[in-house]
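Model it.
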Amino acid sequence: MLSRRPIIALVLLFAVAGVAYLGFSAVADAVRVDGASVFVAPALWFFMALVLFALGALAWRERAYQLVASTVLVAPSLLFALTLTHAAVTLIASLSLFVGLLHVNHELGARIRLSLYRSVAVGMTPILLAVSLAISSQYYAHINTLAWDQLVPSFDLAEGSGAWLLRVAGTLSPSLATLQDRNLSVDTFLSELRPAIEVGGPGEVLSTRVGEAVRQAEIIRSKIELSRLLGRNVSGDESMNAILSEVLRKKTVAFVSGNATDTAKVPFLPFFLAILLFFTVFPIGSLLAPPALSLATLLFAFLVRSGVVTLKHVTVEQDVIV
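Modeled.
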């Protein structure tokens, strides 16, 4: 009977390459998200890649298959970040994958009964290391080309530390405290901030028309000041919450860099963020590995039950002491 393993091995190679491409594409898209990057989609794609790679590890018994498989899982990232540094890291990741497949192959040869979960688990650490390196290196290549103020996460003044800042500021200005519950535009906020203007002696109040003109002049002056802080024009239709968040982000960049200009440079920040991502992805991958292996085991059992994969008992020679 003609073995189906070579065909299954090729199909899994193409499947891993395709899913890996979608995963690294999702990483590139996540970096472009305004504010904090969202890595839910990449996590799902790479979870599927781990499942397929675990299945393939059983079929890729020859060195040629193992070398190709070690490449197709991480090489697609070069399509989105083709730099010399990233290429070097990708090569290291490929070598790590190859080592992982060697561990799996050795475990398969040493076991009497075939167990996908236990065999692939032996090589899972270098596999996860390779994927984490590739994702972090691609992330570094992307953010290294971003404007420096984009590297600093934006502050949502309705949540987290932003809410705390508004509560503190609200003790000094009650109008600021309302921003936590109300999404006001710049014009509306400034109008409520200056509801009426009284000048002159006691009982002397400006007429409604003149008072409105003075108030509008104050609003325009306030918007000019906001425009100066942001380095761009503020029309008045923007959310005051978003405007203050942007001011906080720019001031944070100026504080970190020691430079108040928009072109401030923080050379260590992209590398630090990439390292931080690596130490985030690797533990998450370690948590996702058991369910990925369990799912791969179920899929393998289904393929055996359906007759797509055939198991055969063979006699193995072994050296023993007599």
